[in-house]
Amino acid sequence: MLRKIRTHTYEAHSLSQQTTVHSRNPRKLSGRYSSNTLDSSLSPTAKEIARLRGELKLLRDKHYALQAALREAATQSRTKDMLVEQLRERNRSLDAEAGDLRRLADERRLEVRSMERFLTKTDRWAGSDLVQAVKDINNEILQFAAAASEGMAIIVSNSISGVPGTASTNNTTSSNPRARSKSPQDGTKSPTPSLGRRKALERVAARFGSKMRQCLEKRDHMQDPTLLQYALQACVCQCISHAMSSFCFGSTGKLESHLSKIYSHMHATEPQPTSSRWRALTHSHIRALSPNIDSLATTEVTDTCLRGVANVLSAAGFGEVEDLLQRASQKYRSQLRRISELANRFAYIIREGTMSTDFQPLFVESVREFNPLTMENVYEGYEIPTTYNGTGSSGTSRGRVLCTTEVGLQCLTNKGKEGKEFSPQTIERRVVLKPRVVLESIVQVLDR
């Protein structure tokens, strides 16, 4: 198009030059062309030039407009490219942030799951079920003690009837409680007990006090085996209570001592669910690593009960400890093992199935002063009315404990709140089942 315009422009310029030459030579012009012919030839060309110039201007304007639009489009493209890059960078940043948030969410989820395990207060058994379980154990102990005390009295009585003047052909005269131990009403001085019986009496005195020793040594248990039954109950209750109070049922030694100290410190300084869950997890893993620990512990507790029973029977004058241990093992091992198994089952429940509090068996050691708030007197109402703590109210038992005949149950709960320091002062102690005890004044009641 530009070339065409230039060609027409050149032709117009040539014509104008020729016109100028001819105008300078009018003679030549008039000779060759006329004025009308020149005008008619120049008019279309000029119009064509004007038209082409107009088109050229339009094309230039359009060209400038297109260039401006192109520049604007390029600017917009660059702007959009920058925006896209920014969005891509933002997307990468959001992806990285989302990944961090997902990892954090997973960590929090694991923490919450862990906290749920450590802060749950859900118990497998209700408190009433635990109380009933302790009562069942006490009933089993009562049945054993009654059977053992009456059975031994019958055995010795039959031995005496079969061979007058001796308790048994295999034993010395010291095995006859009547020959060795007169009732306080007889006024007869008892002979010196044998060496084995003296050791048994010393062990009984160490466990249950001198008053129990006197009761076992001086009284005629064939005529009235009541005190012997109480002594046997106390012996088994003490063994079972100590076994259930251990971190692992029936365990002893340094490891047991360390675990118990760790748990006691944790229970006093951490929220209740945390210490309970730690104890449950530790206890379950110990049992998992030692599959036979329950059977071994039950056997050991049963043997401990048998040795204690043999010492009580020997102190009561029914023979030597080794002979009585063999006899008791043959006759009462299955019964005592059943008691140990029930106690082991109860210990498992309070160790691994109780998170809301810490249940502990309650056994009152001998020679302690009677407290009606935490103990129950077996002979309440049958003793001589006395006042308690100087309050002036009559009919309330007082005095020292002779022995515990039934195990009680208490719960220890750390009532400290989050954000505050936990301490032993924040532990709430509540007796849910009072242990039943016999006071030293029982001798006066039985002698009425």
UniProtKB/TrEMBL annotation:
Domain of life: Eukaryota
Region annotated Disordered, chain positions: 1-40, 164-199
Amino acid composition bias (Polar residues), ranges on this chain: 14-23, 182-193
This protein's name: Uncharacterized protein
